[in-house]
Amino acid sequence: MAEMKRKLNIARAVIALAMVLIAGHGYAQSSLDLRINEVLVINDSNYVDTYGRRNGWIEIFNTAYNTVDIGGMYLTDDPANPTKYWIPKGDPITSIAPRNYVLFFADSMPTRGIQHLNFKLKEGGSLALFESNGRTMIDAVKLGPQKPDVSYGRLEDGGVEWGFLEKTTPGANNFTGVIVTAGEKFGAMDPFGVGMAVIAMSVVFFALILLYVVFKNTKKIYSIDLRKLFSKPEVEVEAPKPAGEEISGEVNAAIALALHMYVNALHDHEETVLTIKKVARTYSPWSSKIYGLRNVPR
């Protein structure tokens, strides 16, 4: 019983630990999910900031499905100086929602707010995002020759391939083409619905087979006696030997010796008559001490 309780406690601890790890993984943020997604170096007639000025800008994309705070990290255009611009903490602007964006303006005017950097973008330069320790590089991009009002970014948000985008999309999806849904793709491959019918029937039959197996084995599950499973195992007691079982020679010898002693050597033959001899003296001999004295031989 103690062993069973110990195993149950271990199982509960493992399950609790797994739930904590899963919950932590689901809600924990990771700076490695951030990507430099789009960059505009030459801004002649494009996006303007809150001050009505046109400057180069940088778009950071959160590829994760949880919120990530970019506060405390660094942006730089100089690999030799990874801590060039420190992004302040504690501002709602730096908290990037899942699959969302934040913009930074490279106008060399950091006094205008958190989103305004202390450097400007240049053709042939570089751009990098560093972790809050100032050593771990999260993402970087090399800026080659640029075109006025044409942004350079990932062809798909968070993707690997870079190129000049047809449209500048600050704070929006980089892909501006027609998005073909999975249903439309399947409809193009199966215009008459034959494949859909086969898949639907396969799913139904598979579900029926699975239900058959489950219901067939339900009886075995209910037949398990949980009381016996969790009860203390009984100590096996050796059953007495049947009367007809053969007795060893030692046992027979002991029985015979006991019977012999009982019949012949236990008691002598004794009379059952009690005789009392009368004493001639008038006093009672019971109080006399002379009978307790030893006679001295002559």
Automatic annotation (TrEMBL):
Main localization, broad class: membrane
Transmembrane annotation, as ranges: 192-215
GO molecular function, one term: sodium ion transmembrane transporter activity
LTD domain boundaries: 24-154
GO cellular component, as recorded: plasma membrane
InterPro entries noted in UniProt: Lamin_tail_dom, Lamin_tail_dom_sf, Na_pump_deCOase
PROSITE patterns referenced in this protein's UniProt entry, alphabetically: LTD
Pfam families on file: LTD, OAD_gamma
One GO term of the biological process aspect: sodium ion export across plasma membrane
Keywords: Cell membrane, Membrane, Transmembrane, Transmembrane helix
Compartment(s) of residence: Cell membrane
Keyword Membrane in record: yes
Name this protein carries in UniProt: LTD domain-containing protein
